[in-house]
Amino acid sequence: MSEDPRDKAAALAEGMEAAGALIESLEQEVADLRSDLEQASAALKAAQEEVSSRAGALDEKEQARVEAEGEAEDLRAEISALKQRHSNEQLRLSNQHINELAEVRRRLEEQRRTDVDAASAGTHLDTIKEEFRLEREALEARYKEEISALKNASEHWEEQLRTGYQEQEARHATELEAALSASTEREHALEQSLREDFEQRLAEERSASDERHKAAVQALRSAAAERELELQRENTATVERQQGEIESLREELEEARRSSEEWRKGELRRVKALAEGRENDLRKTHAARLAETKESADRRVAAIQAQREADNRALRARHEEETAHLRRDYQERLAAEDERRKSETWALDERLREAAVRRETELRAYTTRLKELEAARLSQKSTSQEGLERVVERFGAEISGFENRVTELEAALEESEARRNELEMVLGEIRAGGEEVSGITASSDGAADGEPKGRLEDVEVQNILAEEKIEDLEASLSEAREESQRNAEQLQRALESLDRLSDPARRLREGIALFNESEHARTVASISKAFGLPKVHAALDEGVQGRPTLTFLWGDMAWRRYVSDPTEGVEEPRVYLTGTGEDPAEVEAPFRQPNARMDSRGRLMIGVQAR
Length: 611
What we know:
- The protein is mainly alpha-helical.
- It has helices at residues 3-119, 126-194, 200-284, 289-440, 446-502, 504-516, 519-531, and strands at residues 535-540, 548-554, 558-564, 575-581, 596-598, 604-606.
- The strands form two sheets. The protein has a four-stranded antiparallel β-sheet, covered by helices on one side. Strands 5-6 form a two-stranded antiparallel sheet.
- Residues 437-448 have low confidence and may be disordered.
């Protein structure tokens, strides 16, 4: 009876060893499964880091574009301030010139009134005063006509100068705005093309383009400032020359007036003294001398009139000579100014032609570069999408393998549970058999029973260890199930994304909804306010599967094409402009047929537009 328990104990020990080996193999498989899961997690983490780094690069490029737009706005504000300052200066100088001319007229009128009042004070020389007044009025009328002619010529010249300067300034502003708008469009096109490129070489090309743009803007700003300063100096010099000429004419007129007044007053004093002396002599002498005195007075008056007429003729001749000299100088200066402006206009035209040729060359180079970048971006896009599909397939295969492995582990665990139950039953039988043997042969077989009891204790210890290992294995299996469930959820999301890609109608609707939420919808709506509602064609791009393309045509005036990619996880911008033009004939015939429409709020929807 003692051999039967030993055989059972040996069989139990062998079963426990087999269970331990099975548990170790299961632990090794669980460790391998964990390492595979860790590798998959590391791959996902690396992909997420790459996406975040690309998003950071795009943010930096967007920041650079915003800074460039800020600099362009500052330049426009500075040019507007310069224009406003120059117009204010022109208005101030014109008002000052008008006020000075009005002051000269007022002084001349006051002097004329003073002369008339002084001349009307005499009582014995009414005829002389009347003739002098008529001659003075005629002289003043001629002088006013000449002054008016000079003033009209000066105003006409100033108006021509102002008109020429305004036209030149308008042309310069138009050219500057055109250059800025062209530069802004080029920068915008370069930014949209560079958003898809993550290589250092393209970043360096972008920085070089920005430097060239800044240098061009700086050169334009310097040229505008230099031209503005030069025109201001020329205008200031012209105004100063005119003021000097007016001052010299004013001084000459004042001097002539003072000399004429002094001579007239002296003559009047002499005539008055002579008349008074003659009158006293006539009162003291015989009345017969009155006729002789009158004759002498008449001869004196005739001599005075002849002298005054001679002086007036001399003054008129001198004034005419000075006026002719001033007119010749003025015409010569006008001719020289016209020649100089013609030469400047010719130089500016040459510079404009050179700038136009340079812009056309740059535009062709940028167009070629944009086509190359678009081709590279499309190839990279297709490559990345193929890589995504391969990753999804690989994850699906791994998850299927994980599920199969979990199924095998569950089967092994059930088998281990059955083995453990069998071992417990065997252990119970051994314990029952040991108690019976110990009760029957307690005194004779004590030494023989010691060895089975020791083996039973070892078996119990191994059983406890096996239970602990089984609990650890169950925990590992639960973790593996959770990881497998997470992978299954990721696979389900990827499959849903693939289902959306495989449904063209749904893909197109999602692309239109994404476009309606973007800022490009407002841009198209603002263009439609000027050109009317466009014809809209919505389709999926044949080059890249699942990418909706929206084409807008405004009659025979313009067309624009956008791409709206609703794929989850795609880098920004998801909506961007791919083409624009002014001739709708450039658009392929299938894209000119409308299959969608846009309402008055700028929102797109599927359906043929009513025309």
